[in-house]
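Form 7-S
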Amino acid sequence: MPGLNLYAKFRMQMNPAAVLSQGKRFASDFTKGVGAYVMTAARSSLRPGKKPAEPGRPPHTHGRQSPLKHGIFFATEPNTVIVGPVALAGHTYQGVTGARLLNDGGIRIVRWPGGRTKTQRYRAFPYMAPALKKGVADYIRKTGNTSVRPIAGPGS
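Output:
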């Protein structure tokens, strides 16, 4: 109807605590989402195989319940997510886990109970850095959120 004017009167209040709480919840959901995508990419890159993987490719796993494959988890802290394999009992040597040796390569000296030693050389089978790239790319493609900035950790 021409000439009809409507007016509305309202009052707006801002609750800073609620806004901060919502922002923290969003940040928490965001880091959990990125962590889940990277963890899934890392787990799916580890395929079963009877022969050793080619150098530069992710390592092969053995059996359906591989401790390496099923030992990759993520943990969140405020604005940070950490993704990687957990240290398995008996699979560490001088602070280096077996999963880290597989990922980065390196040398490990094994001492047997009779005093005999053996040097084991590990070729690098990187699987965490490619999983980081793939997981972040999948997350960005799925959600459209481009504010992800991956920072590779030690050994990457």
